[in-house]
Write a structure and sequence with these properties.
GO terms for molecular function: ATP binding; phosphorelay sensor kinase activity; protein dimerization activity. It catalyses: ATP + protein L-histidine = ADP + protein N-phospho-L-histidine. Residues 347-437 form the Histidine kinase/HSP90-like ATPase domain. Its EC number is 2.7.13.3. The protein folds into three domains: 9-222, no CATH class; 228-309; 316-434, 2-Layer Sandwich (Heat Shock Protein 90), CATH 3.30.565. The chain is an alpha+beta fold. A hairpin with a 2-residue loop joins β1 and β2 (181-183). The longest helix is centred in the middle third of the chain and has 50 residues, at 228-277. Helix content is 66%, strand content 10%.
């Protein structure tokens, strides 16, 4: 969605063109369409709420409990409301999800009727009941307060006309009450009218805030709740997939390193020996030289491919040594400090290495930095990798796939990536990876 088209009301409220856009009218339509629904629900709740308030008030004033008939009525009525609420809330939730489209373009999955018994057992059903009571109990109060503010503002704007009509006849000394004072003539009422006119945009914003608040409650209460069991299964499935990927990656690396690479090296050597045995004036000399050069280029490419799967330096030197090797090869001054004790899990070690490699690559390509620092440490059962530089800052994951891909790689290892890069610098990339003892 482009910035010219906000997706929802809360986003539109932050824009400067709010008052001249269609969003205020959409908010007003949302509020007006709420009135009949909230009104019907409020009447239903008052049937129980009014006697309950009367009983509480009598208990406070006279210190005696209400009579038995009223107690029976309240008990039966309350049980009836609770019994019917999960059923009534279903159609109300359907209508509310549909009406939400007036002020929020983001989809909200529609509910599915899963049976009468499920309405009483499911958390989603009782969340809809909670919204039902909110719509019938809290919304009318908020709407009455807003309506009172609108009527007061209309009174301010219309005060000159009211004062003029009250003094239109000779000898008429009637006064017009305007909010906090009285006016005798239309001229005295003009300042009140100016204040009322200035408050009109404020009321438009208040209407937008009221509609946005109600829409947020709708989205929070009527959104489909997260299935915790399904979420745990997704996490376990991701762990299995990552483990299978690592096993397959090691197999490919081993096959390339132990199978294809030695054979290609042998082929390159044989072609080199053949070039020595063939004279330069032979017709086969040039094709043989081309084949030899291509074989050498392919061997370099294969070595880089194996290095990209798992760098040999990581296997030989460990994480700290491999990172120092990366720092030595960088065109900017890089300081490495490592405080690691114990053996790292392979996936954590590989992920940390590629984090440092990608971060240093971004420093060289985009940051315009003169120096960088890499810190490896252990904190609270996590491997903490920090890469900082003194560059221009302003790194934004939305402007490229490097940081996004890095975050995805870290998330696959059950870690998290934090980025601080204000304009003007400095930039800090912090990655936390689980490192169980």
């Amino acid at each position: 969605m482009t910035p010219e088209h906000p997706r929802h009301l809360a986003e539109a409220l932050r824009r400067r063109d709010w008052l001249i856009s269609a969003w205020p009218w959409r908010a007003l339509a949302y509020l007006v369409s709420t009135v009949p629904i909230a009104g019907v629900l409020a009447v239903g709740l008052l049937v129980i709420g009014a006697p309950l308030l009367a009983a509480v008030n009598a208990l406070r004033q006279h210190g005696r409990p209400p009579g038995l008939p009223l107690m029976l009525f309240l008990a039966v009525g309350s049980l009836t409301v609770l019994a019917l609420a999960p059923i009534v809330s279903f159609p109300v939730a359907v209508v509310e999800r549909w009406r939400l489209g007036l002020v929020d373009g983001r989809p909200l999955p529609a509910p599915r009727w899963t049976g009468l018994a499920a309405r009483y057992r499911s958390a989603a059903g009782w969340r809809e009941v909670a919204y039902l009571f909110c719509l019938g109990g809290i919304a009318p109060i908020a709407y009455w307060v807003f309506l009172l503010l609108v009527l007061l503002d209309i009174g301010l704007i219309a005060s000159p006309w009211l004062a003029f009509n009250s003094t239109s006849e000779p000898g008429d000394a009637a006064q017009v009450i305007v909010v906090w004072g009285t006016v005798d003539t239309a001229g005295e009422a003009i300042p009140y009218a100016i204040v009322g006119a200035l408050l009109v945009p404020v009321l438009w914003y208040a209407a937008g805030l009221l509609a946005a608040g109600q829409a947020a409650v709708v989205r929070w209460t009527l959104a489909r709740p997260v299935d915790a069991a399904a979420l745990r299964e997704v996490a376990r499935s991701r762990t299995r997939l990552v483990g299978a990927y690592e096993a397959e990656r090691r197999r490919i690396e081993r096959d390339l390193h132990d199978g294809a690479q030695p054979r290609l090296t042998s082929l390159t050597l044989q072609l080199g020996l053949a070039r020595l045995d063939v004279g330069e004036d032979s017709p086969a000399a040039r094709p043989l030289a081309v084949a030899h050069d291509q074989a050498r280029g392919l061997m370099v490419m294969l070595r880089q491919l194996v290095h990209g799967i798992r760098p040999q330096s990581l296997t030989d030197l460990g994480l700290a040594g491999a990172v120092r090797e990366l720092a030595d090869a960088a065109p900017v001054a890089v300081t490495v400090s490592a405080d690691l004790d114990g053996e790292l899990p392979e996936i954590v070690e590989t992920t940390a290495f590629f984090v440092v490699s990608e971060a240093l690559g971004n420093v060289v390509r985009h940051a315009g930095a003169t120096r960088a620092e890499v810190r490896l440490s252990r904190a609270d059962g996590d491997l903490v990798v920090e890469v900082s530089d003194d560059g221009r800052g302003g790194a934004d994951p939305s402007r490229g796939t490097g940081l996004t891909g890095l975050a995805d790689r870290v998330a696959a290892a059950d870690g998290r990536l934090l980025l601080a890069s204000p304009p003007g610098g400095p930039t800090l990339v912090r990655v936390e990876l689980p490192w169980p003892r």
